[in-house]
Amino acid sequence: MRVALVTFESFYDHSLALDYLVGYASERREATGPAEFGVFVHREKDDTKRVTQQVLEWGPDVVGFSTCVWNIAESVRAAKAVKDTAHDTVTVFGGMEASFRPRALLEDCAELDFVVVGEGEVPFVDLLGRLNRGEAFQTAVAGLAWRNATGAVISGGFGQALTYMDNLPSPFQAPGFAERGLSRVLYESYRGCAFRCDFCLYSREYAPMRCFSLDRVRDDLAAIARSGATHVRFVDATFNLDADRAKKILRWMAGCEANVCVEVVAELFDEEMISLLPSAGVRHVDIGLQSTQRNVLEAINRTWHRGDQFRKNLDLLRREPALTLNVELIAGLPEDTPAGLRRSLDEAVLMLPDHVSVYRLLGLKGTRLARRADELGLRFDPDPPYELIGSASFSPEDLDRVNDLTFAHLVLFNSGVGRYALRHLLSACDLGPSAIYDDFVAVSVERGTYSREEIRWLGRHHACGNRFESPTLPGLELPRVRAAIVDYLANAGLPGLLGEHRRIATDLADFGYRLAELDSAREHIGKAAGAGQSELRVAPWCQRASYPPSVLAELVRQGHDLGELAPEEVAGVVFFYHPELGPAALAIDDATASLLDQEAIGAGDEQPPVLDVLRGLAILVPKEALISG
Ligand SMILES: C[S@@+](CC[C@H](N)C(=O)[O-])C[C@H]1O[C@@H](n2cnc3c(N)ncnc32)[C@H](O)[C@@H]1O
Ligand code: SF4
Question: Same domain, yes or no, for 197 and 130?
Fold first, then answer.
C-alpha cells in the first residue's frame, strides 16, 4: 500500500507531524501491513491542481492530510481534487483542526473518507492495518471517524495518545536527515501544556503533558546542528517551563549557529537561564502576555500571571541585544473591553520589547472558550481561523477600531522606524501610546498618507515588524513608513508637541529608520559573512548620520549606549551590523570620522556582488577603524 502524507506549511521545510507518523508507522509493519510512505510538504499558497498532480503521480492508495486552522481550507480543496481524479484513493484527515470537528468535516466533504481523532500516531497505524487487511468499518474505533453505508458518521472519539514519547522514532536521527538539506526545522521537546488557558489548544484535554527524555533531546539537537539547518523553532508550549531542563538544553546548544526561536512564559525565567539564551543561538523569543487586566486573566484561567515578575524578567531579557522579544496580546478576550485592551497595549509597549503582537481572538475548536462561546457572548466567524466578529464588549465597529490601533502600532512601534520618536512623544506630550496611535491614524487619513481601507487591511496583520522573519507587507515598506511618520510629525496636533520636539522626533525617526533598514538587510549580511568572506565578519557595513546634541541626549535618556563621547564631542553616528548584536549605532568624534572617510571603499573597487545590493547603506570599514573593535 502506498501512503502519501501531505501538508501545507507557511514557513517550515518539513512537517514534524508527518515525519512522526511515518517514523512510528514504519516501525510497526506487523500492525500496518506492507506500506510505503511519501511525504509532501507544500506551501500554503501552492496551486491545488499542481499539488494534487504531484501527489497522484506518486501513485498513492491512501492520501493523508495533516490539518491545522490555517490550512484546513486548502486541505479540503486538495482532498476533493484527489478524489475527483482518483476515485478509489482513500482520503484521511488528521491534526488539530480535524480532530475537534470530525463529524462536520465528514458531513460536509463527501470526498473525505476518514478522520484520525486526537493524537495521530497510534490510530493512524490502526487505520492502515485495517485498510491493508480489507476490514469493514462497522462498530466505532477509538481515534477514528468515518461515514457508514447510510452516510451516518461513526466516531470512536479520541484515540490512544503515546505514553512514552521516546517510542517515537526521531526523524532527526534517522539516516539521511542531513541529506534532506532542510533549512527551517520545527522541534518539539514535549507535548501538551502544564497550564490550562481557556483560549489555547496546547492544553489538550485528551492527553497530559509528556516530555521526550533529555538524552533524546540532546541527541536530536546535535543531529539538527550537524544537518546545517539555519532556523530552528521549538514548538513547545513553554520552552522555559522546567528551569533545570531548559538550562540543560541551552547548555547543549551553546555555539549553535542556527537562528533559534522559542515560546516562553516570562515569569518562569531566572537570570542564569536568560544569560544562556544568546550563546544557544536563541534570537527570537515569543512571550505570552495576552492581557494585563486582572479580570480578563481570571476569565481565561491565567491567574498565575505575575505582573512584577513579568516586567522584571523582560528587563533582564532586554539586556541581551541578540534577542528579539515579541510580547503577545489577544484582542477580544472575554471580560475585556476596548479600554482594557488599550491599557494592556500601552503597558506592553512601555515595557519596550522589540515587538508587541496583537492577535485577534480565535475561537479554536477544541478550546474551552469555543465551547462556551454562547454563554460568554462571543461571536466567531464560522469559517477558519474562527476570528472573533463581535462580543458583548467588542462590537464589530470596536473591532474595526482595534485594527486602526494595531495599524498605527505596527508603523510607530513594530516596524522599528518610529519607536524612538514615539518614546520622545510619550514624554514630551505626556500621553500613552494608544492616544498617540489614535492621532496618527486620524492625521494619516486626513493627509492621505494611508487610506482608511489600507489602514484596516494592514491592521489585521497583527504579527509583523522589522524583526519578524515574515516578508514585508505591501504598505509597510520602510521608506513608506518613514515618509508617513515624518509627515505625521510635521502635522500632528498633539498637545505639547512644540517646534523643538518635532525636530527631535523627526531625527529620531531617521535614527529608527537606519537601524530598521540594517535589520532588514540581515539575511544578506549573514549570507555574505557566512560565505567565507571573513573580512565581512570583522568589517560590518556602516553608514553615518549626524544629529544635534539634543537628539543624542534624548537617545541617551532612552537608554542607548552610543559610546563614551559627550553629546558635544560627537561628529556623527555610525550605524553598522554587528555579527552578534545585530544593528548597532555608535557615536564617533572628528578624528574617527576623517579616518572612516579615508578608508571607505569606493563603488568601483572589486567586491562581491552582494555588496552592490547593499552599497546604498554600506561603507566597508577595516577592523582597525571601528571603535567597537
Ligand atoms: C503557544 S501560545 C503560548 C505562549 C506561552 N505558553 C504563554 O502562555 O504565554 C502562543 C501565542 O498564541 C496566541 N494564541 C493562542 N491561542 C490563541 C487564540 N485562540 N486566539 C488568539 N491568539 C491565540 C497567544 O497570544 C499565545 O501567546
Ligand atoms: S497559552 Fe501558553 S500557558 Fe496557556 S495553555 Fe497555551 S501554551 Fe499553555
Answer: no
pLDDT band at 451 (very low <50, low <70, confident <90, very high): very high
Taking only the tens place, the pLDDT of each residue in 119-133 is 999 999 999 999 999
| Gap between the Cα atoms of 21 and 5, Å rounded | 9
Q: What is the pTM of this model?
A: 0.92
CB 359 within 8 A of CB 462: yes
Q: Is the minimum distance from the CB of 193 to ligand 2 under 6 angstroms?
A: yes
The residue contributing the CA closest to ligand 2 atom 4 is: 197
Are both 17 and 142 inside the same structural domain?
Answer: yes
Pick the atom of ligand 1 nearest to 263's CA: 4
- Report yes or no on 556 lying in a domain: no
Q: Do 288 and 417 share a structural domain?
A: no
Q: Residues 247, 371: one domain?
A: yes
Pocket test for ligand 1, best of 100, 209, 359 (most atoms within 8 A of CB): 359
Contact status, residue 128 vs residue 62, Cβ threshold 8 Å: yes
Q: What's the rounded Cα separation, in Å, for the pair 327 and 305?
A: 14
Is ligand 2 within 6 A of the CB of residue 195? yes
Domain of 125, CATH number, reads 3.40.50.280
Ligand 1 atom 25: residue of nearest CA: 328
Relative to the CA of 200, which ligand 1 atom is closest?
16
Answer yes or no: is 317 within a domain.
yes
Q: What range does the domain containing 571 cover? A: 537-548+562-625
Cell matching residue 21: 507518523
Q: How far is the CA of 200 from the centre of ligand 1 (A)?
A: 6
The residue written with cell numbers 572612516 in the block is: 596
The answer to whether residues 530 and 543 belong to one domain is: no
Q: What is the pLDDT of residues 510-540, one digit of tens each?
A: 999 999 988 877 766 665 555 444 343 334 4
Beta strands in 157-258 (DSSP E): 184-187, 190-191, 210-211, 231-234
Residue 252 maps to a domain: yes
Supply 95's cell numbers: 491534526
Q: Of 564, 417, 397, 568, whose CA–CA distance to 486 is shortest? A: 417
Provide the CA 618 distance to its chain's centre, in angstroms.
29
> From atom 7 of ligand 2, which residue's Cα is the shortest distance away?
237
Alpha helices in 173-332 (DSSP H): 214-227, 243-252, 271-276, 294-299, 307-318
Distances in whole angstroms, Cα of residue 12 to Cα of each of 7, 88, 347, 355: 11, 31, 33, 22
C-alpha cell at 575: 550605524
Looking at the structure, tell me whether residues 29 and 104 fall in a common domain.
Answer: yes
Task: Determine if the peptide bond prior to 385 is cis (ω within 30°).
Answer: yes
Check pLDDT > 90 for residue 151. Answer: yes
- Cα gap 345→336, rounded to integer Å: 12
Q: Which residues line ligand 1 (CB under 6 A)?
A: 199-200, 202, 237-238, 263, 265, 288, 290, 328, 330, 359, 361-362, 364
User: For residue 401, is it within any domain?
Assistant: no
Contact 596, 337 (CB under 8 A): no
Whole-angstrom Cα distance, residue 627 to residue 629? 5
Last residue of a domain, one of 155, 178, 200: 155
Number of domains in the chain: 4
